[in-house]
Design goal:
mainly alpha; 3-stranded antiparallel sheet; single chain; Recoverin, domain 1; two-stranded antiparallel ribbon; 2 domains
């Protein structure tokens, strides 16, 4: 790594950029402003985005450059990720959507699934969970007493709603609202002449 690369200035102009930069810094203990691309999903999901694996791969591909193979510099990471929040991309699912999804997986309509049923569904249907993701889910979802997953209880456990600007999307909305309006477009010469002619007629 060249000294010039380490000294790239990355201006932080608002609270949203500061929040994203702080999340980036968790994976940049030596303050090089460079992290490995494999850490990008953890940062994005940790901030509150919920992209699919395919969408994450698209993000990673858009961040990779010849200058930093296998890595990404904060100067490239910051505008892309702040834009995700500004445009409200990859919002977490609502409780109603999550419950509806679980109910479709519960044809008996009994409000719960067995560990085997859920494991099979999560590893063979749609975008499969990894073993680590499945284990993390089961730690919260599986009830050892009933030997089942009560999915309504699980959804309630899962859906912690950050208050105020702890929700990064809310913070992004405030930053956007505070931006000054864009200047009016410059008039063309023909518009000036047309206005002058109208005033002369009056």
């Amino acid at each position: 790594m060249d000294d010039d690369e380490e000294e790239i200035e990355v201006p932080i102009t608002n609270d949203l950029e500061q929040r994203v930069a702080e999340a980036f810094a968790v994976f940049d203990p030596f303050q090089t402003k460079i992290i490995e691309l494999k850490d990008v999903p953890s940062i994005i999901r940790g901030l509150g985005c919920c992209p699919t694996e395919a969408e994450l791969q698209d993000i990673i591909l858009s961040l990779e450059t010849q200058k930093y193979p296998g890595s990404v510099h904060l100067v490239n990471f910051l505008p892309l990720v702040t834009d995700l929040f500004t445009q409200h991309k990859f919002l977490p699912p609502t409780p109603d959507k999550l419950l509806a999804a679980f109910r479709r997986l519960d044809p008996r309509g009994i409000g719960c699934l067995t560990k085997e049923e859920l494991t099979n569904l999560m590893t063979t249907e749609g975008e499969p969970f990894t073993n680590d993701e499945l284990e993390e889910m089961m730690e919260i979802a599986f009830d050892p007493l009933s030997k089942t997953i009560n999915y309504e209880y699980y959804v309630n456990q899962l859906l912690y709603e950050p208050e105020g600007e702890k929700n990064v999307y809310t913070l992004a909305d405030r930053i956007e609202a505070e931006k000054p309006p864009p200047p009016p477009p410059r008039k063309t010469m023909s518009e000036y002449l047309r206005e002058a002619a109208q005033q002369a007629e009056e």
